[in-house]
């Protein structure tokens, strides 16, 4: 029995370290290759020894697919390809391919230069790893090999984020990566067609949340920033350089313009300008509004937002600073946080990606620093909420759903909801746990047009009560399957047809002559079988379609006539019917 | 399968393919060469043009002098320019299901097709094709609408009058169908019917046909199309290039195994090498400027201009032209320059890698930044303040009949210091210049057409090996002006089928198979038998379901169990449908085995020789000349068995039911043929 097997090496009932193995029709695909922010030991990377302990990964995997550039989806890639060793193709979209190596390099720097980790991947490894990447375009069908094909759909989570369909023959799996079902200020909404996969693997970060409208959160954010700036305070917004940062920049930029505010807005790292440049070059990946207006005004050319210099942190007066990294655990955002935390006039927000263990980090910071500044927690992360997830399931119409990238408890809730609403099975394997789904793929064959048309000519919709059967012969030659009419099959293979004929004797009491009996049979059948061609031939026999009826005298009993009803196998039903009809006798002659 | 040919222009094709119950339009190019018969539309009142003498017949009859003007021996229509539309009468265009666009030049007739014919289908095109196509249309509409012309000439179109006119007006075809330009409203409505597609995207049409765009290497987002079902494949090749310019290279491999390859959009200047033309362009340009003259380059706002700007970018400093201003004037100049930078995924590898840095893929960004290249929506406004001479101006329209180019022709035409360099191959430069004669300015013709030439075509055809080639008739003979150049035509075996405007071709196609899916339950029940080594057979009796042009075979329903006497009686009273098809039988019956089977009791019937009743005890076998006769005396049944036939004769048809086909042991090798 063919089957689809799914094993999460990461993101199984957990957020972080996304890495899911899928086996479909003999093909093995690895979906994402992320790191876990919550760990700094071996557990930060997926355990690739699960795939093979001794062999080369390349021999076991047909391809690797990366859904987007966040490190919890691609952070382990250089380790996987260069240190464990994988030389097969790695697929990702072009923006992901452009931005991913920058974030990997950033990650490497923090790990090696700041934390002093040894045995980490090198810059060269990142470069070598990226050489194995093949860019895929939206909706393009990429033929990985003769049988395995993949196709990317827009996911709207970050620039270049994609959902992937993995297909072999008539079997398919869709992996959503992270996605967002509502368009935001710079990206559009995720979309997929009714592709009816055998399995949909979806993220479930916000499995239980129905989020209030984005507008409200934005208004809330702007109001708080505005208030702080008005009373002369400083606002620290720790962010990742790419993604939400651009959305918030657009938000503040337009607000500043509308309110004619003068307080400076800074962006902390040199990366940002570069990041904004990526957004300018990848305009087709942004939302419709930006795409339509970019010629007049490129939304990523900010007038009010300037590069930040370390010295600015000590300058008096209000300001807004976007600083990286978003988790406040190191780097510039932590430095600024230390400086400003003591003043209750200031405000810091966390526009963050949900990460487990992160809040603790903040707690430590607060305890040490005696944080007097206001700390606001605001979530702008672009994941689909429960409603969005249900919406996507409805769009794709999968036969099964599998949840990853979420907390077990919340998954449980969503699983029930999906099973109830869509009547499909829903799974939520833990890391290392395998889900096996039997599939029953149909077999495509070529049917000769003659046979098909003969069948179609008899009406398109078969009557449910009297199903009509199509008879043909399937010729299987190597892997070429053809369904042809039996005549054609015999002819092709040089075989002769075997004629099968039945003749049944029916005894009738009739004292008249044979010819007269035949006439009576003829008129009787003619009146009963109105839709059939009943003929009386000159030689005295009667035919109904191709069934022949002859009347003869009985050798012993002159008062009995014998009807010989003869038909071929093809007419078996009608022949049988006529025999039983004639056995009931003929109506009295009028 | 049929091909309806609606356009006679080989590089601006418009064909309709009928294939498996779908009607697919391939491109809708607009033939704009008709505008060459009209007077230019000047942006600024031109005394020269407005004072041209009216044309009169040889006999002095001057009734046409309002409509027709004469300039240096040529006659022009003084009216709003008109375009030659694709044929609209050959096929009911409201039946067109989809329109496939191959590149932005081949969609210019779209508003005429989608807006006024009852068309309700979908148009498929790549994003660059749509965006740049929109720019081209916007520019066209703008050029024509901003110079409103009261006069609309129609008298000359009268067939009897047209006969009397001088060439080329006399020979202009289909003048009655010529139409004025569409409006922006029609453009927007037409473009709203487009669905964006990416290269190698498989698009299902009604479940019957799959279409796929492939990179064609000619322009940003330009595509060839594969139209295929599971057993037939048509390739539509339109405007392809093998040269390395800015677009993604042409995908040739996917064109293999085509039954039919429709070939359009080859180079219009097969004798000119694009590379040497670019060289000539640069040297003429710098020479003119060095002598203090101005250079005018009539061009489209997108396409070759990107390559020219890139060449100049490399050339400017070495040629000492850094101080010369380059102007790009078009209502869509800015949009075109901006759009070119955001379509990284549609560009050649070199340019794609730039965005990873991240840098804009085209160097004209730097030309703009350093103020070497300036762009303006028109000659009015800022341009008039910034204008410095000598300079180089890129502007449209290449026909020289409308657009800002008309102004520069009037302005610079009288001085031999200035040069006009023709790079666009769509219009004959001599005809384009005719209404400006006499001219003092230098005219240089360096047409740059990167589309396939005949050598490349012949290589391509050898490579992809289509069974049949279909092309416009122009490609099956040498160009009229070079009739000895038999190398300037398509040479393939079998010879290409050619078409001309308003022709309908029956494509040489015999469809023999169709895909059908056998459901797993049915597949499990099949019993394959090996007939020859490597060849197996299985009889299939199944229920056919057809939905959305997809066919599925499901297992036959189990015979309903008779539930009551009454029902059964009624069932047997029903007159059976004589059309029920039976499996075909083949092979011969091994008599001994057959008799044994009949004798056996049925406690453990060997499938499929199943006998439900008790065995027969009184079987007699007689040999005959051709075979055997088996007698079942008790049952009063006689069975004649011969090599290729069996005849069962009996009194009781219940008996017949019992010895029905599945129970007859045909030679075991072939029994699968008669399995029920």
Describe the protein in words:
The complex is a heterodimer of chains A (590) and B (676). Chain A is of the alpha/beta class and 590 residues long. In chain A, 32% of the residues lie in helices and 25% in strands. In chain A, β27 (547-553) and β28 form a beta hairpin. Chain B folds into three domains: 2-37 and 70-270 and 451-506, Ribonuclease Z/Hydroxyacylglutathione hydrolase-like (Metallo-beta-lactamase, Chain A, 4-Layer Sandwich); 274-445, Rossmann fold (3-Layer(aba) Sandwich), CATH 3.40.50.10890; 586-601 and 612-675, no CATH class. The two termini of chain B are 38 Å apart. At the A-B interface, α4, α8, β21, α14 and β22 of A face α8, β23, α15, β25 and β26 of B. β24 (499-509) of chain A pairs parallel with β30 of chain B, so a sheet runs across the interface. Chain A: Its cofactor is Zn(2+). Chain A: Pfam families: Beta-Casp (PF10996), IntS11_C (PF21386), Lactamase_B_6 (PF16661), RMMBL (PF07521). Chain A: It is found in: Cytoplasm; Nucleus. Chain A: This is Integrator complex subunit 11.
Report strand order across the widest sheet of chain A.
6-5-4-3-2-1-20
Sheet/helix structural class of chain B: alpha/beta
**Given the helix and strand composition of chain A, which structural class is it?**
alpha/beta
Spatially, the strands of the biggest sheet of chain B line up as 8-7-6-3-2-1-22
Outline the low-pLDDT stretches of chain A. Answer: 351-369
Separation of the first and last Cα atoms of chain A:
67 Å
The helix fraction of chain A, in percent, is 25-40%
Furnish the topology, listing elements before pairings.
The complex is a heterodimer of chains A (590) and B (676).
Chain A: E1 3-10, E2 19-24, E3 27-31, H1 57-60, E4 63-65, H2 71-74, H3 77-85, E5 90-93, H4 94-114, H5 123-131, E6 133-136, E7 141-143, E8 148-154, E9 162-168, E10 171-175, E11 199-203, H6 214-230, E12 234-238, H7 244-259, E13 265-267, H8 271-281, H9 288-293, E14 305-307, E15 319-323, H10 331-340, E16 347-351, H11 358-369, E17 374-378, H12 386-396, E18 400-404, H13 408-422, E19 425-427, E20 435-438, E21 443-448, H14 449-456, E22 470-477, E23 480-484, H15 486-492, E24 499-509, H16 514-528, E25 534-536, E26 542-544, E27 547-553, E28 560-568, H17 572-583
Parallel strand pairs in A: 3-4, 4-5, 5-6, 10-11, 11-18, 12-15, 12-16, 13-14, 13-15, 16-17, 18-19, 21-23
Antiparallel strand pairs in A: 1-2, 1-20, 2-3, 7-8, 8-9, 9-10, 22-23, 24-28, 25-26, 26-27, 27-28
Helix pairs in contact in A: 3-5, 4-5
Chain B: E1 2-5, E2 15-19, E3 22-26, H1 47-50, E4 68-71, E5 74-77, E6 98-100, H2 110-115, E7 122-126, H3 127-145, H4 159-162, H5 184-191, E8 194-197, E9 203-205, E10 209-215, E11 223-228, E12 233-238, E13 260-264, H6 274-290, E14 295-298, H7 304-315, E15 326-329, H8 333-342, H9 349-354, H10 364-369, E16 373-376, H11 382-386, E17 392-395, H12 405-412, E18 419-422, H13 429-433, E19 442-445, H14 454-464, E20 468-472, E21 497-499, E22 503-506, E23 513-518, H15 520-525, E24 529-532, E25 535-547, E26 550-554, H16 565-573, H17 591-599, E27 619-623, E28 627-632, E29 637-642, E30 645-650, H18 653-658
Parallel strand pairs in B: 3-6, 6-7, 7-8, 12-13, 13-20, 14-17, 14-18, 15-16, 15-17, 18-19, 20-21, 23-26
Antiparallel strand pairs in B: 1-2, 1-22, 2-3, 4-5, 9-10, 10-11, 11-12, 24-25, 25-26, 27-28, 28-29, 29-30
Helix pairs in contact in B: 3-5
């Amino acid at each position: 029995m063919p089957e689809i097997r799914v094993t999460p090496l990461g993101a199984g009932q957990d957020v972080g370290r996304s890495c899911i193995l899928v086996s479909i029709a003999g093909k093995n695909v690895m979906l994402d290759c992320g790191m876990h922010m919550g760990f700094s030991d071996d557990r930060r990377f997926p355990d690739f020894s699960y795939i093979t302990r001794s062999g080369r990964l390349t021999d076991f995997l047909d391809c690797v697919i990366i859904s987007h550039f966040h490190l919890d989806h691609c952070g382990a890639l250089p380790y996987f390809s260069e240190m464990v060793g994988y030389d097969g193709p790695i697929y990702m979209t072009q923006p992901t391919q452009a931005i991913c190596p920058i974030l990997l390099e950033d990650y490497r720097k923090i790990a090696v230069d700041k934390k002093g980790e040894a045995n980490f991947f090198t810059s060269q490894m990142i470069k070598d790893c990226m050489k194995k990447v093949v860019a895929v375009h939206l909706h393009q069908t990429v033929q990985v090999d003769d049988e395995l094909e993949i196709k990317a759909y827009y996911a709207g989570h970050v620039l270049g984020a994609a959902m992937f369909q993995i297909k072999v023959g008539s079997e398919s799996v869709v992996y959503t990566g992270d996605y967002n079902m509502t368009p935001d200020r710079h990206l559009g909404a995720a979309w997929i067609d009714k592709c009816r996969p055998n399995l949909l693997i979806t993220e479930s970060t916000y499995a239980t949340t129905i989020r209030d409208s984005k507008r409200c959160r934005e208004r809330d954010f702007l109001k708080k920033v505005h208030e702080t700036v008005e009373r002369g305070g400083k606002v620290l917004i720790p962010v990742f350089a790419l993604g939400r940062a651009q959305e918030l920049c657009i938000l503040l930029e337009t607000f500043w313009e509308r309110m004619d505010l003068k307080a400076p807005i800074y962006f902390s790292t040199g990366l940002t300008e570069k990041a904004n440049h990526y957004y300018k070059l990848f305009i087709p990946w942004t939302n419709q509004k930006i795409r339509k207006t970019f010629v007049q005004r490129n939304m990523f050319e900010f007038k009010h937002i300037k590069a930040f210099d370390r010295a600015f942190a000590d300058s008096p007066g209000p300001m807004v600073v976007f600083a990286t990294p978003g988790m406040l655990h190191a780097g510039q955002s932590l430095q600024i946080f230390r400086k400003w935390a003591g003043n209750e006039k200031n405000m810091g927000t966390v526009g963050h990606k949900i990460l487990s263990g992160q809040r603790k980090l903040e707690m430590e910071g607060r305890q040490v620093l005696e944080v007097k500044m206001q700390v606001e927690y605001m979530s702008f992360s672009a994941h689909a909420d429960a409603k969005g997830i249900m919406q996507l399931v409805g769009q794709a119409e999968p036969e099964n759903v599998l949840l990853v990238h979420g907390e077990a408890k919340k998954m449980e809730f969503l699983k029930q909801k999906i099973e109830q609403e869509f009547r499909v099975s829903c799974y939520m394997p833990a890391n290392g746990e395998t889900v096996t789904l039997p599939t029953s793929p149909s077999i495509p064959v070529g049917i000769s047009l003659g046979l098909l048309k003969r069948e179609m000519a008899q009406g398109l919709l078969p009557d449910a009560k009297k199903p009509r059967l199509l008879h043909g012969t399937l010729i299987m030659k190597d892997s070429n399957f053809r369904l042809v009419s039996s005549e054609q099959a015999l002819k092709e293979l040089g075989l002769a047809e075997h004629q099968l004929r039945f003749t049944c004797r029916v005894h009738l009491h009739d004292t008249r002559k044979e010819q007269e009996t035949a006439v009576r049979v003829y008129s009787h059948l003619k009146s009963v079988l109105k839709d059939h061609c009943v003929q009386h031939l000159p030689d005295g026999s009667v035919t109904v379609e191709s069934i022949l009826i002859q009347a003869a005298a009985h050798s012993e009993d002159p008062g009995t006539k014998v009807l010989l009803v003869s038909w071929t196998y093809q007419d078996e039903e009608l022949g049988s019917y006529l025999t039983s009809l004639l056995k009931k006798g003929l109506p009295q002659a009028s | 399968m049929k091909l309806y040919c609606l356009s006679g222009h080989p590089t601006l094709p418009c064909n309709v393919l009928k294939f498996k119950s779908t009607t697919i339009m391939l491109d809708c190019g607009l033939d704009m060469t008709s505008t060459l018969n009209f007077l230019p539309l000047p942006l600024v009142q031109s005394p020269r043009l407005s004072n041209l003498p009216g044309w009169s017949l040889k006999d002095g009859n001057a009734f046409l002098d309002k409509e027709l003007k004469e300039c240096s021996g040529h006659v022009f229509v003084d009216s709003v320019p008109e375009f030659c539309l694709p044929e609209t009468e050959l096929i009911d265009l409201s039946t067109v299901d989809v329109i496939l666009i191959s590149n932005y030049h081949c969609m210019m007739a779209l508003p005429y097709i989608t807006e006024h014919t009852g068309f309700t289908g979908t148009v498929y095109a790549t994003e660059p094709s749509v965006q740049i196509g929109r720019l081209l249309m916007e520019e066209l509409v703008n050029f024509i609408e901003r110079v409103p012309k009261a006069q609309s000439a129609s008298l000359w179109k009268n067939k009897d009058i047209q006969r009397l006119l001088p060439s080329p007006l006399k020979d202009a075809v289909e003048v009655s169908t010529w139409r004025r330009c569409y409006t922006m409203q029609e453009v927007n409505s037409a473009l709203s019917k487009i669905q964006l597609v990416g290269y190698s995207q498989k698009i299902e049409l009604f479940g019957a046909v799959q279409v796929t765009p492939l990179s064609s290497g000619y322009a940003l987002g330009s595509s060839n199309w594969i139209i295929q079902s599971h057993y037939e494949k048509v390739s539509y090749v339109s405007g392809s290039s093998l040269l390395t310019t800015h677009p993604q290279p042409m995908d040739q491999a996917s064109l293999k195994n085509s039954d039919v390859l429709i070939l359009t959009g080859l180079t219009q200047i097969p004798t000119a090498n694009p590379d040497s033309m670019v060289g000539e362009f640069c040297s003429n340009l710098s020479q003119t400027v060095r002598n203090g003259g101005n250079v005018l380059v009539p061009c489209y706002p997108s396409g070759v201009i990107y390559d020219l700007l890139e060449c100049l970018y490399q050339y400017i400093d070495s040629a000492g032209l850094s101080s010369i201003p380059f102007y790009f004037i078009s209502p869509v100049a800015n949009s075109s320059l901006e759009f070119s930078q955001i379509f990284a995924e549609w560009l050649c590898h070199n340019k794609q890698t730039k965005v990873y840095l991240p840098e804009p893929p085209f160097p004209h960004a730097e030309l703009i930044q350093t103020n070497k290249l300036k762009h303006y929506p028109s000659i009015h406004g800022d341009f008039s303040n910034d204008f410095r001479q000598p300079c180089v101006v890129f502007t449209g329209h290449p026909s020289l009949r409308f657009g800002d180019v008309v102004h520069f022709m009037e302005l610079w035409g009288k001085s031999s210091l200035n040069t006009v360099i023709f790079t666009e191959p769509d219009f004959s430069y001599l005809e384009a210049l005719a209404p400006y004669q006499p001219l003092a300015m230098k005219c240089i013709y360096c047409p740059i057409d990167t589309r396939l030439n005949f050598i490349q075509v012949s290589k391509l055809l050898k490579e992809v090996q289509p069974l049949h080639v279909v092309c416009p008739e122009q490609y099956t003979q040498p160009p009229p002006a070079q009739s000895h150049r038999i190398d300037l035509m398509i040479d393939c075996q079998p010879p290409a089928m050619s078409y001309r405007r308003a022709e309908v071709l029956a494509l040489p196609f015999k469809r023999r198979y169709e895909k059908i899916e056998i459901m797993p339950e049915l597949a499990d029940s099949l019993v394959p038998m090996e007939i020859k080594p490597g060849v197996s057979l299985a009889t299939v009796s199944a229920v056919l379901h057809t939905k959305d042009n997809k066919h599925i075979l499901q297992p036959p329903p189990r015979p309903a169990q008779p539930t009551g006497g009454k029902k059964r009686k009624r069932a047997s009273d029903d007159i059976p449908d004589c059309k029920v098809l039976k499996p075909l039988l083949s092979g011969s019956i091994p008599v001994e085995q057959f008799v044994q089977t009949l004798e056996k009791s049925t406690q453990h019937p060997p499938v499929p020789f199943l006998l439900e009743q008790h065995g027969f005890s009184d079987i007699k076998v007689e040999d005959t000349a051709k075979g055997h006769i088996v007698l079942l005396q008790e049952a009063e049944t006689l069975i004649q068995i011969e090599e290729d036939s069996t005849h069962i004769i009996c009194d009781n048809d219940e008996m017949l039911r019992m010895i029905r086909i599945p129970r007859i042991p045909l030679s075991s090798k072939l029994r699968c043929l008669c399995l029920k």
